[in-house]
Design brief:
The protein is α/β, with parallel strands linked by helices and about 240 residues long. It has a domain of about 160 residues: 3-Layer(aba) Sandwich (Rossmann fold). Helices cover about 40% and strands about 25% of the residues. It has nine helices and ten strands. Strands 6-7-8-3-9-10 form a six-stranded mixed beta sheet, sandwiched between helices. A hairpin with a 2-residue loop joins strand 1 and strand 2. The longest helix has 16 residues. It is globular. About 40% of the residues are buried. The model has no long low-confidence stretch (mean pLDDT about 95). Bound molecules: adenosine-5'-triphosphate and magnesium ion. Adenosine-5'-triphosphate binds next to helix 1. Magnesium ion (MG) binds next to helix 1.
C-alpha cells in the first residue's frame, strides 16, 4: 500500500519552477531517501507533502489524504522534523517533550510515560532538566526526531536531520530511524550524505526540481555502473548538465 503518491506535482515561485512535475510513490514501511544538491527542490517538495505549502499544479496524497484539501488531516497523521530546529532552546529537555506531546494530542498519562521512555531510550535521563540550547547538536537532532514521532505517526518527514554531526552520531541517529521503521512508521528523509543513501530501501535523486532517478541503491549503482552512491550522484549531475 502506498502512503505517499504524487502526480506531476509542481511548485513555482513567480516564474521560477522549484519543483518540476514530480511523480512518485512511497510504500508503507519504506525508508525513502530524497536526495538532491543544494537548491534542487527537496524542502519545497517536502513542505507540499506535509500540507504546509499549496502546490502550483499536479496532485498528491499523503496517508490517503489530499494535499490540497485535507492538510489538517495530513498534519495529524505525520511527523515533521524541519531543516531548521523546531525545539525550543530556552526550554528544558523534558519541557520540550511535554510541549510537543501536548501539541500532538497525547493524553496526560501517556505523556508522562512517553517522556520517561523517550529519555531512557535516548540515554538522556541525566539531562532531563538541561536547557535544549546547552545540548550538543547530535543530541538535539535525536531529541527532535523522537519528538517528531512521539504520537506514532504513519509517516515521518525528516529534512536533513543529521547535518553537521560526525559519522558515529549519524550512525546512532539512523538506529532511531530503523527502530521507527520497524514499528511500521514510513520514513521520508532528505540527506546530503551518500553513506546514508545506502541505508534507504529506495532513493530518488532530484536535479533542478526534477526527479532524474529513482530506485534501490543497488539498482542505481548497477544502472550507472558505479561503485557507490557518490558516483551515481556525480554521473547524474553530469548527464543533467549535458542535457541543458
Ligand atoms: N519561498 C520561496 N520563494 C522563492 N524561491 C524559493 C522559495 N523557497 C525556495 N525557493 C527556491 O527554490 C529552490 C529550491 O529550494 P529548496 O529549499 O526546496 O531546495 P533544497 O533542495 O531543499 O536545498 P537545500 O539542500 O539547500 O536545503 C531554490 O532555488 C530556492 O532558492
Ligand atoms: Mg532543503
Amino acid at each position: 500500500m502506498n502512503v505517499i503518491e504524487t502526480e506531476q506535482l509542481t511548485k513555482r515561485f513567480g516564474t521560477f519552477t522549484a519543483v518540476d512535475h514530480i511523480s512518485f510513490s512511497v510504500g508503507e514501511g519504506e525508508i525513502f531517501g530524497f536526495l538532491g544538491a543544494n537548491g534542487a527542490g527537496k524542502t519545497t517538495a517536502m513542505r507540499m507533502l506535509c500540507g504546509l505549502s499549496t502546490p502550483t499544479s499536479g496532485s498528491g496524497k499523503v496517508a490517503g489524504f489530499d494535499i490540497y484539501k485535507e492538510t489538517e488531516l495530513i498534519k495529524r497523521h505525520i511527523g515533521y522534523m524541519s531543516q531548521k530546529f523546531s525545539l525550543y532552546g530556552d526550554l528544558k529537555v523534558w519541557e520540550n517533550i511535554r510541549l510537543y506531546g501536548g501539541i500532538y494530542g497525547l493524553p496526560e498519562k501517556r505523556l508522562k510515560e512517553k517522556t520517561d521512555e523517550l529519555l531512557r531510550v535516548l540515554d538522556l535521563e541525566h539531562e532531563r532538566n538541561t536547557l535544549v540550547d546547552a545540548l550538543p547538536l547530535g543530541w538535539k537532532q535525536k531529541l527532535s526526531f523522537s519528538v517528531a514521532v512521539i504520537h506514532e505517526p504513519r509517516i515521518v518527514f525528516l529534512d536533513e536531520p543529521t547535518g553537521g554531526v560526525d559519522p558515529v552520531t549519524r550512525r546512532q541517529f539512523w538506529e532511531l530511524i530503523y527502530q521507527a521503521a520497524q514499528r511500521g512508521i514510513t520514513v521520508f528523509v532528505t540527506t546530503h550524505y551518500m553513506d546514508e543513501a545506502e541505508y534507504c530501501n529506495r532513493v530518488s535523486i532530484m536535479v533542478d526540481g526534477k526527479i532524474e532517478a529513482l530506485d534501490s541503491p543497488a539498482a542505481l549503482k548497477k544502472t550507472f555502473k558505479a561503485d557507490n552512491m557518490n558516483d551515481v550522484f556525480r554521473a547524474l549531475a553530469r548527464n543533467a548538465k549535458r542535457g541543458e
